[in-house]
Amino acid sequence: MELKNKLDYIDVGITIANTVRSTLGVRGMNKMVMLDGKPILTNDGATIIKNLPITHPIADMFKGLAEGQERAIGDGTTTATLFAGQLLENAKTLLNKKIHPIIIINGYNIAKQEAINFSHTLKTRGERKEIIKTTFGSKINPAFAEHLTNLLPSNIERLRICKVENKEPLESKLIKGYMFDGYTINDRMPEFAQGHIAVLDLQSNLEFAKFQITSTDELNKMESNLKEFKRNLANRLKEAGVKIVFYTDTNPQFENFLTEAGLMAIVVYKREYLDGICKATLAQVIADPTNLTLGYGSVNYLKNDQKILIENDSSEIDTLILQAPTKQVLEETERAIVDVMGVLHLTNDVVYGAGAFELQISLHLKEFAKKIGGKEQIAIEKYAESIEAIPLILAENCGFDAMEVLTLLKTQHTAGNITLGVDPYRMIGDAKERGVVEPVSLKINALNSATEVANLILKLDDIYGERK
Ligand code: ADP
Ligand code: MG
Questions:
Q1: What pTM did the predictor assign?
Q2: Is 69 in the pocket of ligand 1 (CB under 6 A)?
Q3: Is the CB of 77 under 6 A from ligand 1?
Q4: Maximum alpha-carbon separation in the chain
Q5: Which of 269, 271, 266, 297 is nearest to 178 (CA)?
Q6: What is the dihedral of CA 451, 453, 454, 458, to 10 degrees?
Q7: 135 CA distance to ligand 2 middle (Å)
Q8: pLDDT tens across 10-64, in order?
């Protein structure tokens, strides 16, 4: 695509923002996107925008916007993206009226600051359950969402997730301990054991290639030394009361000795699992076998699912055993939980969602614009209109006459019914009564980052050079 001027860049931005338009809200649609070459179904704005098959500097700005919101907040990416798109759409109208971009940018910045100040006056304390429910939104079905909400630990830092396919979602559970993909090294091992646990990471000690060998004699001696070392280690572990051994590298000889010693041995073939194993068992990774620091727990090999389940009442972590019938549902659910984890890190200061917050901001800014006057007034008014896109699109995605819903909501809000928003079943409903709340910091972050991206694009005159 050859782009010649600012209006072209703005159009690219609007087009990109519109890719997520139909996914906003509880009645949002899903999209199919390619992730690492595989198709996935998702309703998650960040996932869609980040994986758009478009290479263009404007697309990169939108990807940055989505990633930034995801990193800082965990949720609200669709809102931020759509708002940025709408700011561009409205800026276009102003540019066509020959209003200078600098005036628009100034007006947008003034409006943003006032919107943020006003946000603080709207906030109230939110209930954890309601915050979680709004964040899950449409990404998973309500019964599953409710079940998961009840499972999530109060200290979200403790949470790990293990996904299990082909299983009943409502039987997902939370355990004190850890579960990960793995298996015992052979069928002669016990499938269950309880007791002391050793987590070995002995690569340099078990690997024979690390030694300098100069003659056949030396080689033979070294081999028999190594063999002894492995046999002794297996015996020492047994004598120390160890029942279960986790270790990081496969070594048939060592595995034989472990089997002979009657231990349950499991290869940890992804190093990222080590942290969970140690936190669940309170073990420390042993790199030097002269110093054994052991952990404790009961370990089950779940053969059908090829999972290792570690349980321990003193575990420092909790694992959500997340079950669903298909991989697609599992992954979408995990993305939703990651959003929830992000949001639960924030304070409990919330505002009412379903478009109620946006209507309040918009009404306030329209009054504020009159006070400011001057050239910027019209840009502030357009900023206020842009934010109405959120309730409008929410209504549109419910299949309502969106303009009608927006007009009704404006009338109600002007009359002082400030918590009314879009209700997917009755057109208009009280977000407060329905428990639709979102963190105020989610909204503030979205206002900030959407305004920044829109302004950056408005400031752009030319893009030079070929993009590699
Ligand atoms: P985002 O990526 O911006 O979080 P979502 O698809 O999760 O996008 O939609 C968020 C929007 O949906 C917010 O405006 C939120 O208030 C609204 N919303 C969430 N739950 C409900 C509900 N039960 N009724 C009406 N609106 C809701
Ligand atoms: Mg959301």
A1: 0.82
A2: no
A3: yes
A4: 95
A5: 297
A6: 130
A7: 5
A8: 999 999 999 999 999 987 777 777 777 788 888 888 888 988 888 888 999 999 9
